[in-house]
Amino acid sequence: MAGNNYHHGDLKSALLSAAREIVGSKGADALSLRSIAAEVGVSHMAPYAHFKNKKALMQSVAGFGFSGLAEQLQKVKDDTIEPSEQVLLYGVQYVEYAVANPQLYRLMLNQMHQIIESGDAKSQDVPDSVKELAEGSKKPYILLRDAFARSKQGDSVEAKIQVKASAQGAWAMVHGLSLLMIDDHIRIPEGMDTRTYLAMAAVQKDF
Q1: Which fold has domain 61-201?
Q2: Dihedral angle computed from the Cα positions of residues 80, 85, 86 and 91, in that order, rounded to the nearest 10 degrees
Q3: In sequence order, what E strands does the chain have?
Q4: Which one of 24, 105, 111, 132 counts the least CB within 10 Å of its CB?
């Protein structure tokens, strides 16, 4: 149990952390407002102050997951200077994050798909949970796009299109690779690290 060792005003963060633990250990089907309340050690009604219902909870957990991924990428940005190396290390962090958190990653993608299909993110009265998910999901891509922009020269329309295409291609690659690895369709050869494998896989992708 996570316990109630949180500061006043930090209950939402504690609940989201508990939710992530539940998803990671038991899967998204085990996630509920009651289960996270029990995990944190608060009344079963306490989560309703932050999440309207289970749908909002799932959206917030997905947004929380994307923010966690962005934090991992941000560490790469802070530690590297050369753009191409930064892009490669972004890919490494993305894949390793997804593979280390398969249940959470599936939830993140599922919730994004649902709000896109429903059009909730474009409604006039957008719930906070949808805003958080929509904004959180953009962060990894923005970091990747900015790294590509640093490696390209010029502000022409063609250069901007190339940056966007390169970023989207790299994003699609690590997304697909992550899912294939999670489903055990692809395995990195024994003795090889993710960086080396990704560099070999992306050699023709300007990654």
Answers
A1: Tetracycline Repressor; domain 2 (1.10.357)
A2: -140
A3: none
A4: 24
Return the amino acid letter for 35. S
Tokens 């790294």 sit at which residue?
Answer: 147
Cα 207 from Cα 167, distance rounded (Å): 9
The predicted model scores a pTM of: 0.86
Kindly state the percentage of the chain with pLDDT values over 70.
89
**Residue ranges per structural domain of the chain:** 1-50, 61-201
The whole-chain average pLDDT of the chain stands at 88
Question: For 6-61, how does the pLDDT look when each residue is reduced to its tens digit (9 = 90+)?
Answer: 544 589 999 999 999 999 999 999 999 999 999 999 999 999 999 999 999 999 99
- Architecture field, domain 1-50: Orthogonal Bundle (1.10)
- Separation in Å, CA 198 to CA 91, 95, 185, 207: 8, 9, 16, 9
